[in-house]
Design goal:
The structure is a single chain. The protein has 532 residues and is α/β, with parallel strands linked by helices. The strands form three sheets. It has a seven-stranded mixed β-sheet, with helices on both faces. A two-stranded antiparallel sheet has the order 1-2. Helix 5 runs antiparallel to helix 6 and helix 13 packs across helix 15. The protein is globular and about 70 Å long. Helices cover 38% and strands 9% of the residues. It has three domains: 164 residues, no CATH class; 240 residues, 3-Layer(aba) Sandwich (Rossmann fold), CATH 3.40.50.150; 84 residues, no CATH class. 44% of the residues are buried. It binds S-adenosyl-L-homocysteine. The site of S-adenosyl-L-homocysteine (SAH) has 18 residues, from loops.
């Protein structure tokens, strides 16, 4: 697999060169479960409770300071197949010790965990304690980031952070108790079938209100907060979501829900079938893969990658053991590998996936997101949010016989064009594509692809779904002659992962754009319905 042009390395977040920030005053070294996936965990998880904690210099692992990191890390955990709770026996421990152990496993030192437990009181839940730790850490970071001549509002900042967190927690509790989740995620997550497991036959009857035209196809993360899929289903004409893990289509997991009114019979996969295991997809890694790394699939491909500092730390941890590290080191390394989708590229040498490799795993053409002024960070970000082509194409394949002359597509939240690429790879001609995407980088990628693939149709760009009002849609329908398919996956920023602090559910700023998907679809339906 080719590497990135080195010129792409220098802009935006430079994951590789940031130094660790040292925090001098407050004895807290990590920001809840989110920010400390680094080397400290090895000390905390393995030895913390037996030995008194080593006198560590408190640090923030600043290579993970991007907000994307939070999404990534948490989504990674919740999307992970192989993430498992420790199975050790903790029955003999007191409640306090259990809490301490849990916090240590999250990467806190025993010292900071103990302080936080004392401050929060004996009845505090683990969530409250991690809130405290996190708020303290943020106060610390704010303190550090301010210039020296600025007054340091540490205490006030800390109290405000803590208060915000408490408020958020109350809000979440209320939401949880009001929610009445009825949708359960299926196991195995194969929706209405996947190519390899075709022994089962599926039938469904669509509610009348859901029937086209147009066909519609909506996507979002499967592991959304409670109630989200119920709401999506309710708005989208009570159509049952189809939950599918892309690990049945490629070498990486990607658990997504799809609500659509497409037929489900006679689907076919894109050919050639993509490699289904890490070794098939990335054959060069095989040579270096240790037998104790039992992964055969990658976890969900995310918007950002593990840092050079992390892989260096792992290399150092492994070098001490000459090929066969003890179990606790293996566990640490494997946890990091799973969290960050690291692969073996040399002896004791792990690396994050190259953007080219992510592109390939997601089924995009090589260099789809490369060049034209797109930074490496933007590539990972756009790819991390995109459709997995083989999965989506499998669902859309039923359109091929229905539209031999091609289709008119309304593509909302087009991103890097997962929908367009899927239809093209299926050999379904794209007559007119109205594509709505707010990111200029992404619009350029789709435009570039459109030109490179010599499309005969017409690509019309819009920027913001919120500006697509009834008049505009009516105009478009008249000029295009109606849409055959309205497709889109609205942003999952407030839904993904187990990040309690940022998971506002569908009412979150970005995630609420789902309602624009519905609004636009419903307008198209009404206008086209009138025309029939
Ligand atoms: N399915 C797409 C990715 C969807 S991710 C793909 O295959 O690549 C959600 C996308 O919505 C992102 O690309 C984001 O830039 C875009 N977006 C966010 N807010 C938007 C808005 N108000 N209008 C249009 N697009 C928006």
């Amino acid at each position: 697999m080719g590497g990135n042009a080195s010129g792409e390395e220098s802009d935006n977040i430079d994951w590789d060169t940031e130094d660790e920030l040292e925090i001098q005053n407050f004895p807290l070294s990590s920001c809840s479960t989110l920010t400390n996936p680094g080397g400290e965990a090895i000390v905390c998880a393995g030895e913390a409770l037996e030995n008194s904690p080593p006198q560590q210099k408190p640090v923030i692992d600043s290579d993970h300071s991007s907000s994307d990191y939070y999404e990534n890390f948490l989504d990674e955990i919740s999307d992970s197949d192989s993430w498992s709770e420790d199975e050790e026996n903790t029955e003999s421990l007191s409640d306090k010790e259990k809490t301490l152990l849990s916090l240590a496993k999250m990467g806190y030192t025993v010292e900071e965990a103990s302080i936080a437990m004392d401050r929060c009181g004996p009845d505090a839940s683990i969530d409250e304690i991690t809130d405290f730790l996190c708020a303290a850490q943020m106060a610390k970071a704010a303190d550090y980031l301010l210039p020296d001549d600025e007054p340091k509002p540490k205490r006030k900042f800390f109290e405000r952070e803590l208060w915000k967190r408490k408020k958020q927690r109350r809000y979440e509790k209320r939401m949880m108790s009001e929610d009445s989740e009825t949708i359960r995620l299926p196991k195995p997550m194969i929706g209405f079938g996947v190519p390899m497991e075709s022994s089962q036959t599926f039938h469904r009857t669509l509610p009348e209100a859901a029937m086209g035209p147009p066909y519609f196809y909506y996507e979002n993360v499967a592991l959304a907060p409670k109630g989200v899929w119920d709401t999506i289903k309710r708005f989208l004409y009570d159509v049952e979501p189809e939950f599918v893990d892309s690990k049945y289509f490629c070498a990486a997991a990607r658990k997504r829900g799809y609500v659509h009114n497409l037929p489900i019979d006679n689907r076919f996969p894109l050919l050639p079938l993509p490699p289904l295991t890490i070794h098939e997809a990335l054959p060069l890694t095989r040579k270096w893969w240790p037998s104790w790394d039992t992964r055969t699939k990658l976890n969900c491909l995310q918007t950002c990658i593990g840092s050079a500092k992390l892989t260096d730390r792992i290399r150092k941890a492994l070098e001490d053991w000459d090929g066969e590290p003890p179990l606790r080191v293996q566990k640490y390394v494997l946890d990091e590998c799973r969290k960050w989708n690291l692969v073996w590229v040399g002896r004791n040498k792990l690396a994050p996936l190259e953007a080219d490799e992510v592109e390939m795993l997601l089924g995009f053409p090589r260099n789809h997101t490369r060049g034209g002024g797109i930074s490496r960070t933007d590539r990972y970000k756009s790819l991390g949010n995109s459709f997995q082509i083989d999965t989506v194409a499998y669902h859309l394949s039923v359109l091929k016989d229905l539209y031999p002359g091609g289709i008119n597509l309304l593509s909302l939240f087009s991103g890097i064009g997962g929908a367009e690429v899927s239809l093209h790879r299926l050999g379904i001609p794209l007559k007119t594509v109205v594509s709505v995407e707010i990111s200029e980088v992404n619009r350029n990628i789709v435009r570039g692809w459109w030109e490179q693939t010599n499309q005969k149709g017409n690509l019309i760009d819009f920027t913001d779904v919120q500006q697509l009002d009834g008049d505009r849609i009516e105009q478009l329908i008249h000029s295009v002659g109606g849409f055959d398919l309205v497709i889109g996956g609205s942003p999952c920023n407030n839904l993904a992962g187990s990040n309690r602090h940022h998971r506002d559910g569908l009412e979150g700023k970005e995630s609420a754009l789902f309602y624009d998907y519905f609004r636009i679809l419903d307008l198209v339906k009404c206008i086209m319905g009138r025309q029939q």
